[in-house]
Amino acid sequence: SGTFGWKRYHELAEIEAWLDEILATFPSVTESFSIGQSYEGRNIRGIKISHGSNKPGIFIESNIHAREWITSASATWFINELLTSQTTEVRNLAENYDWYIVPVFNVDGFEYSHRQNRLWRKTRQPHATSSCIGVDGNRNFNSHWMENNGASSDPCSETFAGESPWSEPESKALSEYLTSIKDKFSVYLSFHSYGQWLLSPYGHSEVEYPENYDDLQEIGAAFAGAIKNLVYGTDYVYGSTASVLYVASGSSVDWVFNELDKKVGFTIEFRDKGNFGFVLPPAQILPNCDELMAGMVALIDKTNQLGYI
Ligand code: 0X9
Ligand code: ZN
């Protein structure tokens, strides 16, 4: 586990140094990759964990929203478990799938949330027509962009969709990277907080559902049930984004479904239900991670049973 104990939140430089340490410690099963550059010129990094070629791939995008620090804390913990755990369940996860994990996707916003404003959400690119800064990365993907009031055209809004789809270098780079590996992954997960939800597509409409929606709900039930069974007794609610939460148009998960033709993808909204919200106390990092692993084992197991991977 290197220098991390998951007892506090780490900033970007620490996470990158930790990633390098992990890559150096497990060179035969890990590979570094880059999604591309952020607006401020930072590298958006990822790690691939693979025990052989051409296993079904699982892609994890984390911290697209800057203030959701529990997401990168949990993603780094999950990487560490895949590489070090000796339990059969986790070994099977590690050995039977190829993992592509991006622990901090919105690197500029994440850095800003550590330096200037703990509650920053968006990217950091300025606009020609406003002094407000940034776009909601999860409204900037070119799938049903701006439809059904699922995003805002106001540059000062927290859900500003951008001047156009792909206005942000980060979302554009991710779409190009995902397209380049589209035959290598079957499951797409987007880590968020907070609310304790497992959200399936679609976000863009309350009346449209993927053709395999029943299967996605079955996977959701397995995920929520496994978490509920842990000592914490935490409740997760599952359902489509638009039906459970609100209409969200131009999200990454919807784009992956509609444009890359993927059949299994979820947004996971971690702890809590609003008591601490985005500023989840560090003492809850490890309990959240336990829940993530239990949920993930069940999710992958059910996805496998249903024949998707
Ligand atoms: O609004 C969002 O982008 C996400 N919620 S958050 O509070 N973390 O901002 C939910 C997005 C879910 N969207 C899709 N699955 N389409
Ligand atoms: Zn979010």
From TrEMBL:
Cofactor: Zn(2+)
Coiled coil ranges: none
Domain Peptidase M14, residue spans: 8-303
Domain of life: Eukaryota
Active-site positions on this chain: E269 (proton donor/acceptor)
Single Gene Ontology MF annotation: zinc ion binding
UniProt keyword terms in alphabetical order: Carboxypeptidase, Disulfide bond, Hydrolase, Metal-binding, Metalloprotease, Protease, Secreted, Signal, Zinc
GO biological process terms on file: proteolysis
Localization of this protein: Secreted
Record's GO cellular component terms: extracellular space
Described purpose of this protein according to its UniProt entry: Involved in the digestion of the blood meal.
Protein family according to the UniProt entry: Belongs to the peptidase M14 family.
Protein name: Zinc carboxypeptidase A 1
Species assigned in the record: Drosophila virilis (Fruit fly)
Taxonomic lineage from the root: Eukaryota, Metazoa, Ecdysozoa, Arthropoda, Hexapoda
